[in-house]
Design a protein that fits this description.
alpha+beta, 3 strands, helicase
């Protein structure tokens, strides 16, 4: 009985570790998608891409497996929020891009 219990607990720990690892990897990928969307929109604001900045950000987010939830421009600065679902939970990430200060 003890051996069966230990095997069961070990299986639960392995499953939980895998789920946490998947969630962390997805979060890192979502942060990268937010960065890519913000940089793409900033390129459009600067005139390097011939399209509306938020449309470019939407495509960049989509190509990285995320959905563009918000896109705001203020001068040459763009703020984006992307989101996705991870194991039934809503997760979002925010990024900002534009010219360097100074």
């Amino acid at each position: 009985m003890l051996a069966v219990g230990l095997v069961g607990v070990s299986g639960l720990l392995v499953a939980a570790t895998g789920a946490v690892g998947y969630a962390v990897a997805t979060r890192v990928a979502l942060d990268a998608a937010a960065d890519a969307a913000a940089l793409a929109a900033a390129d459009a604001l600067a005139g390097f891409v011939a399209d509306e900045p938020c449309a470019v950000a939407r495509r960049a987010a989509s190509l990285n497996g995320a959905r563009l939830a918000e896109c705001d421009t203020d001068g040459a600065i763009v703020d984006v929020v992307v989101d996705t679902a991870v194991m039934g939970f809503h997760v979002s990430s925010r990024a900002r891009a534009g010219p360097a200060d100074g």
